[in-house]
């Protein structure tokens, strides 16, 4: 069964964006950009909600360089009760049904993996339903306490994370990849060592 990757790009304080900040907080260096271009998940189907679709398809339409070429080429599933067919962004299909059930079905049928892009509410629902196999966060070295928008982890369940990969790009950007485990509450202190 293909895996589902939740993929976030954040400031150190857990914001998905910041008012007035450029993309990647203006800090994407050559190592990170090369990794994005060579991403092994480029053949994954991208899952997103209506807000992320509107924002990214708008950027893709306005961008004249190749920075959106990989995302334009990806198969995309957009979950929305407000958008209407046909979607204008290439390789995007609209799904009106419950995202949890639709993703459960996609995981059972898809020959390739699935990954989210943005879409905080969608990610929270999929994680809560136990459908997420990997959780990846790329942390940019900025704190956006005054200008930060879209706090990523608000209203998430408690989640234990087992690290399976990490990497530093351009001497400053941290990639952290985990296998998530939904917790029923805080763990007891019995297993902790000193």
From TrEMBL:
InterPro entries: DHFR-like_dom_sf (IPR024072), RibDG_C (IPR002734), Riboflavin_Biosynth_HTPR (IPR050765)
Any one of the GO BP annotations: riboflavin biosynthetic process
Gene3D superfamilies in the cross-refs: Dihydrofolate Reductase, subunit A
Domain of life: Bacteria
Gene Ontology terms, MF aspect: 5-amino-6-(5-phosphoribosylamino)uracil reductase activity
Record domain Bacterial bifunctional deaminase-reductase C-terminal: where: 4-174
Regions crossing the membrane: none
Protein name in the entry: Deaminase
Source species: Pedococcus bigeumensis
Lineage per the UniProt record: Bacteria, Bacillati, Actinomycetota, Actinomycetes, Micrococcales
């Amino acid at each position: 069964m293909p895996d589902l990757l939740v993929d976030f790009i954040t400031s150190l304080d857990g914001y998905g964006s910041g008012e007035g900040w450029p993309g990647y907080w203006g800090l994407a260096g050559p190592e990170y950009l090369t990794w994005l271009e060579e991403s092994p998940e480029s053949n994954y189907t991208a899952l997103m909600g209506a807000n992320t679709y509107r924002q990214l398809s708008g950027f893709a339409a306005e961008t004249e360089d190749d920075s959106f070429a990989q995302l334009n080429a990806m198969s995309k599933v957009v979950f929305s009760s407000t958008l209407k067919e046909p979607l204008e962004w290439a390789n995007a299909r609209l799904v009106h049904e419950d995202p949890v059930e639709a993703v459960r079905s996609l995981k059972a049928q898809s020959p390739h993996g699935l990954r989210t892009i943005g879409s905080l509410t969608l990610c929270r629902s999929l994680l809560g339903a136990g459908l997420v196999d990997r959780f990846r966060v790329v942390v940019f070295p900025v704190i956006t306490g005054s200008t930060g928008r879209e706090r990523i982890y608000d209203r998430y369940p408690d989640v234990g994370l087992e690290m399976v990969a990490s990497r530093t790009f351009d001497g400053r950007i941290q990639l952290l990849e985990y296998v998530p485990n939904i917790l029923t509450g805080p763990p007891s202190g019995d297993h902790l060592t000193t």
